[in-house]
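1st attempt posting a full record on here, be nice pls
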Amino acid sequence: MLITIPDVLTAEELALARDLLARSAWAHGGNTAGMQAAQVKNNRQLGEEAEHLPALRQLVLGALSRSATFFTAALPLHIYPPLFNRYGDEANSFGNHVDGSVRRLPDGRGYVRTDVSATLFLSDPDSYDGGELMIEDTFGDHGVKLAAGSMVVYPSSSIHRVLPVTRGERVACFMWMQSMVRDPGQRRLLYEMDMALLKLRQDIGDTDPVVRLTGTYHNLLRQWADI
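the predicted structure (as tokens):
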């Protein structure tokens, strides 16, 4: 399930993120890639020692905490601390890869299972050529290039890549989530049901059938959630 979420960041948050990133030092992205991904990863990334990384992480996590769509799409139990990358010049692409199934937390205090991946775009799409995030599923390839401040959420099990940036610079935030619901098919059903319930409440209010369907949603979540 591939879900796009517009306007995750406000204009003020986006401006602050860009300012902090412009004043940051970048390292080669291969430093945090797994064995297979490192062979096809050619970008820049903020290292754990980057001065402004804590403020950037706090900004993104704060924005995610108020996004109901993000919550219902990912049902996050744990979020790996957000990371930031840059594509451009000689370091401009990331070939086909699958995200590692578990990630050790930067502070060494455990692991996060990567059920859901997300990219939060920070560059205006007309400021660079190429750079589409290509995600494969059973229906083929899907190219994603969103407005700055918008996010795409998709299963971490998907093969994906970033096409070469041939002009300008593509800067983004990326992260992984361990979901309360491990199975992607179950997450999809819950997401679609929650979105349908939201529309029903807007159209007809909390009628008795809507309340009962809401109960069904939560009972399914109780059955499938692992917390």
